[in-house]
Design goal:
The complex is a heterodimer of chains A (225) and B (79). Chain A is an alpha/beta fold and 225 residues long. Chain A contains five helices and eleven strands; from the N terminus they run E-H-E-E-H-E-H-E-E-E-E-H-E-E-E-H. Chain A has a nine-stranded mixed β-sheet, sandwiched between helices. A two-stranded antiparallel ribbon of chain A has the order 5-8. Chain A is globular and about 45 Å long. The mean pLDDT of chain A is 97.
Chain lengths: 225, 79
């Protein structure tokens, strides 16, 4: 399978994503430069990686969403192509309107960089069908703006449609504000669009693909090929 | 040269984490009369005198400067 990793000025998880896709999963992986619009049809998965695209100026993701590659990505997603946005990639997908809601400053105002636990809330998506419903995964977070917010109508729609894909939880899967690292509404760590081909999440599955690095729970999420 | 002053803040329904910390700091410094603080962004945009400046600023806010999911904005335009 061919996989692509979009690179913006200020992306810094692009190499981690490339390593996970290419070296761990063995996909034919390419970097996709933000300034080049292109036909993404040959790709089986596109990752919008973490980092600080355009220095997070104005708002995280606000400038990146207007890059030429984003028009290609929108077409690709509309045709049903699989898109995974991680961390800053999640912020960019929300800014671009490919995912509902937005990500705001962590409640603590602190940059949170640590392993967290997340629970699989919907195991019937192309990204999560290799997990059990309710399975608890460990993956690292590293963000200052990860507090997911949306209005009440949107939240209800996300719940009804099963679009909440991951929630922050304890190591044994309990939901409690003590395990919510950023104050996200309803403990949300990841959401999908209505067709479930676009997923955004704050934790980094690409950094949880080898036991040497503390967890390989993220590997199955990327194993879409 | 038309000049716009644009103020962007989180919607009132959203918790402003920065504003809350500033509020606590002010109260701890003895400003007990502080009821709430909201932190926002302030932008100054200068335009060439061509077309309707308000129309242009409104479009800029809608498209880029504010995220309508979480933010509200207002602006003043000086001719």
């Amino acid at each position: 399978m061919k996989a692509g990793v979009i690179v913006f000025p200020g992306s810094n998880c692009d190499r981690d994503a490339y390593y996970a896709l290419h070296d761990v999963l063995g996909y034919d992986t390419e970097y996709l430069w933000h300034a080049d619009a292109r036909d993404l049809r040959p790709y089986g998965l596109i990752i919008v990686p973490g980092g600080f695209s355009y220095g997070d100026y104005l708002r995280p993701g606000a400038i990146a969403r207007f890059a030429p590659i984003m028009d290609s990505l929108r077409e690709y997603a509309e045709r049903g192509g699989l898109v995974l946005g991680v961390c800053n990639g999640f912020q960019i997908l929300c800014e671009a309107g490919l995912l509902p809601g937005a990500l705001t400053r962590n409640l603590s105002l602190k940059f949170r960089c640590k392993p967290v636990h997340i629970r699989v809330e919907n195991a019937e998506t192309p990204f999560t069908c290799r997990y059990r419903q309710g399975e608890v995964l460990q993956a690292p977070i590293a963000h200052g703006d990860g507090r997911y917010v949306c209005d009440d109508t949107t939240l209800q729609r996300l719940r009804d449609n099963g679009q909440i894909i991951f929630r922050y939880c304890s190591p044994t899967g309990e939901l409690d504000e003590a395990w919510n690292p950023n104050g996200s509404i309803d403990h949300i760590a990841g959401v999908a669009n209505e067709r479930f081909n676009v997923l955004g999440m704050m934790p980094h599955p690409e950094r949880a693909c080898e036991l040497l690095l503390g967890s390989e729970d993220g590997k199955r999420l990327l194993a879409v090929g | 040269m038309p000049k716009a002053k644009i103020y962007i803040t989180l919607k009132p329904a959203l918790l402003d984490a920065q504003g809350r910390v500033v509020q606590n700091a002010l109260q701890q410094l003895g400003f007990e009369n502080v009821r709430s603080v909201r932190v926002g962004k302030y932008l100054e945009v200068e335009l060439h005198p061509d077309g309707d400046p308000r129309e242009q600023i409104e479009a800029m806010c809608q498209k880029l400067l504010a995220n309508p999911v979480i933010e509200q904005y207002r602006y003043e335009v000086e001719p």
